[in-house]
Design a protein that fits this description.
27% of the residues lie in helices and 25% in strands. The chain is α+β, with helices and mostly antiparallel strands and 441 residues long. The structure holds FE2/S2 (inorganic) cluster (FES) and fe (iii) ion. It comes from Aeribacillus pallidus.
């Protein structure tokens, strides 16, 4: 693989098409990108009581997250240390202990092996149970209630990794007393798509909205102005993260604080600083991503006069180079009245649930990308002619807006490929970094 040549192209806003679904690249991505970066696992509100657990995936590793008796959240590989059986098969629930279906070994909420069927009689006195607990995820840290895991014990801290994104997370997740809560359970389904393309769609691509979501325009849910999703700023953040702060053409939103009830405003004004309030009062939608595969959308949906805010987080879990499992969490401010939460949740299900109107539009195009990227022509590695995908938007005709009040490099339109190019550069940095050979004493 000629990485130097690839780098040159990425710098110039071109992404070689063969990289999209190539199986060799996919194997490298699993090891060097997903093996090193922070991956979203759960929101703290999903684990309420001691014994509450959820099961999640870090690409191919099944994970159990469980709250112990002291209220701490532990994360383990969901695999019995006897013969490796996947220990817990439920999505969520509450347990005092986890029992293996194969030979009945039992683990407590701290992952310690506490029960062995027929114990000493068959294993003898010498087997030390404390050596045979569940394997913890090497790093688990959280920010604003968002719990992430990292398989690399030497990774930078979650806070350093999120970097400038923390400021925007504070607006979306930290604006209300009591924080946010997940409503329902995460919806999930499988789609034909490559994880890079789905991540990019949320983090970096408001340009698709006018065409892909044309039906919303025809239904008069969104304006017919072809620039309508471009107004606002596309903000490039550290480590391949990015956020689009979308407003209307006037630079403001039609709904102050995303249409949240006025009773909430004093709370926002107490919890956010002046610059954060300025952005939050003007934004229509926040849409963006944490590299590699966590996306979010905070929007105000519904018809005029009955707009409800909602916040969704999604993980694009790769199942292969041409398949993703989509996980979507719906979150809402705990402090909102129940009636508002319910209406907002219904609006979310109708638009972004597995059968939601807007969801269908995107998945169709993601499938077509992989369908057209797997043949001999699209997978030609010879970069001497133009077999690239085009990421030229805004490359040399756009300067950052120095007056934007938030951190990051803010470009004065959301129709630009700045975040996408920054994602490609970080992708390249990670994928070309050889793993360190560690000696195990
Ligand atoms: Fe779990 Fe044997 S595999 S007890
Ligand atoms: Fe879309």
């Amino acid at each position: 693989i000629d990485w130097k040549e690839i780098e040159k192209n990425i710098e110039n806003g071109r992404f070689p098409q063969w990289l999209v679904t190539d199986p060799e690249i996919y194997e490298l991505e699993k090891e060097r990108i997903f093996g090193r970066t922070w991956q979203f696992l759960a929101h703290e509100s999903e684990l309420k009581e001691p014994g509450s657990f959820v099961t999640r995936m870090m690409v191919d590793d099944p994970i159990i997250l469980v709250k112990n008796k002291n209220g701490e959240i532990n994360a383990f590989l969901n695999s019995c240390s006897h013969r490796g059986v996947r220990l817990c098969t439920e999505d969520y629930g509450n347990k005092k202990a986890f029992s293996c279906p194969y030979h009945g070994w039992t683990y407590n909420l701290n992952g310690e092996l506490i029960g062995v069927v027929a114990g000493n009689k068959v294993f003898g006195e010498s087997m030390d149970k404390s050596e045979w607990g569940l394997r913890p995820v090497p790093r688990v840290e959280s920010y604003q209630g968002m719990i992430f895991g990292n398989l690399d014990p030497d990774a930078m801290s979650l806070e350093d990794y999120l970097g400038e994104m923390k400021w925007y997370f504070d607006i979306m997740l930290g604006r209300s007393d009591g924080g946010m809560e997940v409503r329902g359970v995460p919806q999930r389904w499988v789609a034909k798509a490559n994880w890079k393309m789905t991540s990019e769609n949320f983090a970096a691509d408001p340009y698709h909205v006018q065409t892909t979501h044309r039906s919303a325009v025809e239904l008069k849910l969104t304006p017919s102005d072809p620039l309508y999703a471009s107004y606002g700023h596309q903000v490039v953040l550290s480590n391949g993260h990015g956020i689009n702060v979308i407003t209307s053409a006037t630079g403001r939103s039609n709904n102050i604080y995303q249409g949240m009830p006025e009773s909430m405003w004093p709370m926002f004004e107490k919890n956010l600083n002046k610059e954060q309030l300025d952005i939050f009062s003007r934004v229509q939608n926040f849409v963006g991503g944490v590299f590699p595969n966590l996306s979010f959308l905070s929007s105000c949906s519904g018809t005029e006069g009955t707009k409800y805010n909602h916040l969704q987080f999604r993980v694009w879990r790769p199942l292969g180079p041409d398949q993703v499992e989509i996980w979507v969490w719906y979150m809402i401010d705990k402090a909102l009245p129940e009636d508002y939460k319910e209406k907002s949740y219904k609006g979310f299900i109708a638009t972004f649930g597995a059968a939601g109107t807007l969801e269908q539009d995107d998945t169709e195009n993601w499938a077509r990308i992989v369908e057209a990227s797997q043949g001999l022509m699209a997978r030609d590695r010879n970069l001497s002619y133009n077999n690239m995908l085009n990421y030229l938007m805004g490359l040399d005709n756009l300067d950052p807006d120095e007056n934007f009040p938030g951190p990051g490099k803010a470009y004065p339109t959301c129709y630009t490929d700045h975040i996408a190019r920054s994602m490609h550069k970080y992708w390249l940095e990670l994928i070309t970094k050889e793993p360190e050979v560690k000696s195990h004493e």
